[in-house]
Amino acid sequence: MQPPASQASLTAHILADPLNPFPWYRVMREQYPVYYSREFHSWFIARYSDVQRVINDPLLFSSEQSIRSRPAARTQPTVRTLLWTDPPRHRQLRSLINQAFTPRTIANLAPRIREIVHSHLDKVAHQGQMDIVSDLANPLPIIVIAELLGVPTRDQKQFKLWSDIIVSPARQAKKQAVIEMNTYFQQIVDQRRQQAQDDLISALVSTHIEGTYLTDAEILSFCRLLFVAGHETSTNLIGNALLTFTEHPAVFEELRAQPELIPDAIEEVIRYRTPIQRLRRATTVDTQFGGHHIKAGEIVSPILGSANRDETQFINPEVFDIHRSPNRHLGFGHGIHFCIGSSLARLETRIALEILLARFKDLQRVSDVPLEHVSSSFVYGVKNLPLTFQRCA
Average pLDDT in the 27-56 region? Predict the structure, then answer.
């Protein structure tokens, strides 16, 4: 059953105001919790319990089949990698990444992250104004993931361009960006086969699963995933945090006085302005869901950003509250596809906020510069966020 004609453009409303989709999410939760979007040719899932059910059931809601259903996948073979793989292959691939992103490995990055944050803030400290996105939130995670992979940081601007295109709706440009990124990474892979270094690409080249080495296509797909996932989440989490704090200026002073609250504040930002708003799955068999008949192979899109504002799970969900407890948000997904970059994103954001609050005060958004949403229908973030500030004594 489709929504009545009067409500047939709910997703059109969301697209028209991507910085504030939350009132429309509420309409969905209350009236159309399982909603067919003609714009996206997919079923939008809005309520927390239903979103959790979808992302926790890879047998019924497949990541692998969702990517195979795309038009490009019908004309060219797709490489199964972590994001678009179901068990048991997913467990094998995930184990490789878990070895590279151990808690100790992530924690050991802290000194380098602090060094990068300080160096970028040094460049703007005397100005009294900066764009938190272009001056810090963009370059910080790109440098970190580039160094982990073994990619020269001098190419970071090109990688940011490719990454932004890949998460955008521009299909043809996306194909070209993938081709160019593959060509670049292939050169690095070839070099590492000749001379291994202490980086992730060398590890991917030398590793094997049950005696079988990864193919070049699998390695390239891993590199793309790690680079895009390794910085898009952090960039938007940092930007979303500063945007939200400027709307609640008392939070700045509270966090400056009690920096131990920063991790809880970050979790609330993840809930309140979820960096990845929705996911993509495909049903493996015909199923009844929320009173609707969904055919095998149809796309189901659980909306994390809506689940995180669900009134049945969160008290006053429209209120930003850094003391919220419990805070069982789904901002980084759940289950087997829990975001691989979540620990790194949390660490980078925490360190960035700690240093910002220690060095600057009276942080305010330049209100006459309009906010512009990133060019993506599933990522939440802003392209620019100019701030004024004063240096702490």
Answer: 94
